[in-house]
Amino acid sequence: MQDLEIFNKNLELNNQLIYNLLMSNIIINSDINSKDKQLLLLLLQSRDRNFIRINPNEQVFENIRNYLTLLKPLKLDTDKLIRVGGANDGGYVMYKWGGGLENSPKALSLGVSEYSPWDLEMAEFGFEVIEYDASIEKSPYIHKNIHFYKKFIGAKNDEHTITITQALMDNAFDTTQANILQCDIENSEWQMLEDIDIKLLSAYFTQVIFEFHGCNVEEIEGFKRRKKVLERLNEYFVPIHTHLNNHGKIFYSRGLFWSTTIEVSYLRKDLAEKFLQNGFRKEGNLKDFDTPTYLANVEIPLKFDLED
């Protein structure tokens, strides 16, 4: 048994080395500018189950541009932003709440895991943090403002799942408060958003923060599905921050980088309206705010406007 485990481990390492050699040759011999080549080669480190794809096909390039158009963030002055949850994985850049709605706000955290620093810091700020996750037994933190429920958010209410509508009712969310939703539920966010009226989210939350998964630009139906959901979100919310997860599957097409995992923070439209005159950002990765999700890999550049 031990010999088999050693064999499998060596086989896995060998496959990774072969993949890295193959991709290194593809990157070096591709018509890519030297700076992007260097980044792609650096990103080959610590790839494990994830991959890098160089794909200049027109459809893939346009899919990336479509995603970037939908997720292009509003240009806010940095004094209006705050990073909560610390550096790297688990932290999010968001709008500094306020506006007279901060009397007794709540934060709904979907997808907790054993490490959720955003939840703890929000609790320290005075938010009542409501956590839902059936994959763990209890919250990783003991705090008077944190309440944990061992359930998944789903399409029905039963022993193991609860709808987001029911969660709002059970926890007495108040539409007059600056409530915030944070959602990292490993690709289940798309079904959740398809099953709910986005107008309901805008009634209860001034901000919504998502880690979107599965945004593979080589998928035809998957792209169409996600694009439709993002378009519905944009009817009621405006992106104010977008960041590419550097440990996901990474794509490169004609000068644009992309990841299948993206962190996006939204501000409700009525609150964002006064900032629309600022326009939208042309590039991502804000100095003093953004950090690599996975410290062992370099940050991925994010361009929202690409010269033709």
UniProtKB/TrEMBL annotation:
Protein name from the UniProt record: Methyltransferase FkbM domain-containing protein
Record organism: Campylobacter cuniculorum
